[in-house]
């Protein structure tokens, strides 16, 4: 629990000038969608290709219904995303950096929550028989 709080405190995101309209900014939306859709799609496509080309195989008892929510959680890309955004918007107005960090925080949070609850739904409950999927 302390790591997300530490990361948020050190993100440098000032919420004083933010409003609900900040979530509709193209920078915020683009980063959120990149984390929530782009990264999972990329992870899934490359994982699927690796399995089909026999470069990798799924572990015993693991199916795509467990891989998909894990791929969604790949959208929790906080540290490198903040670093890249700081480089990308270094010479831009300060609001761009704030919108980027807002998109990173929001996209990472949604990716974490969606992935967690999806994975909790598809994993066998404690004490159930674990059969190969």
TrEMBL record:
Q: This protein is called what? A: Na(+)/H(+) antiporter NhaA
Keyword Transport among UniProt keywords: yes
Question: Where do transmembrane segments lie in this chain?
Answer: 34-55, 67-87, 99-119
The lineage's top-level taxon is Bacteria
Q: Keywords in UniProt for this one? A: Cell membrane, Ion transport, Membrane, Sodium, Sodium transport, Transmembrane, Transmembrane helix, Transport
The taxonomic lineage of its organism, from the top, reads:
Bacteria, Pseudomonadati, Pseudomonadota, Gammaproteobacteria, Alteromonadales
Task: Identify the InterPro entries for this entry.
Answer: Na/H_antiporter_dom_sf, NhaA
Q: What is its main location?
A: membrane
